[in-house]
Amino acid sequence: MISETGTAAGWGFYLWHLGETLRRHRGQPRVTLFARRPSGLSKEALGDRLFGPDGFALKPPRKGEATLRLDGPRTYLVEHAALPKNLWGRLPDLNDALLMVEMEPGGGTFHTGIWMSTWGLGPAREKELQAALDRLADRVFGPVTSA
Questions:
Q1: Looking at the 3D structure of the chain, how many domains does it have?
Q2: Cα–Cα distance for residue pair 84/114, rounded to 1 Å
Q3: Residue 52 to residue 85: CA distance in whole angstroms
Q4: Does any domain span residue 4?
Q5: What range defines the domain where residue 49 resides?
Q6: C-alpha neighbours within 13 Å on the C-beta side of residue 20
Q7: Which residues pair with 118 in a beta bridge?
Q8: CA distance 34 to 8
Q9: Single pTM value for the model
Q10: What is the DSSP pairing of strand 110-119 with strand 30-39?
C-alpha cells in the first residue's frame, strides 16, 4: 500500500506509470491530456463531487476492476485508490490509457489534477477525450473564468 502523503503517492504513481509505459507502450509517443483546477472546498466535499454522480461516478472506488464515467461508462482497472486524495489506473478500451487524479496537499484553496496518458488514439479521439475531461471538470469545479 502506498502512503497517502503527496511525495509517496507521487513516486508510487511515477514508478507505476513508467512500468506500464515500458510494458504496454514501449517506443510509442505519448500524449498527455489534463484538467487542473483550484477548489476552496474541503478535500472530502470535493471528493464527493469528483468521484460521485456529478464526476466520475466511480463504482467501486477501490483497487481492482471498476466503472467510471468519462465520455460514457468505461471499465477502469484501479491500481491505487486513496480517495479523495489520489487515484490511478488503466483504461483498457482506450488502448490502455492511464488516468490519474491527484489533490495537492495542504488546506484552504488547493488544486486538483486529472491527468491522462494516451498512446495511439489519434488527434480526433484525443480532442474528444480532452473535451470530456474539461466537461467533467466544469461539472465538478465550475467553468474556467478569465480574470
A1: 1
A2: 13
A3: 14
A4: no
A5: 30-141
A6: 22
A7: 31
A8: 21
A9: 0.90
A10: antiparallel
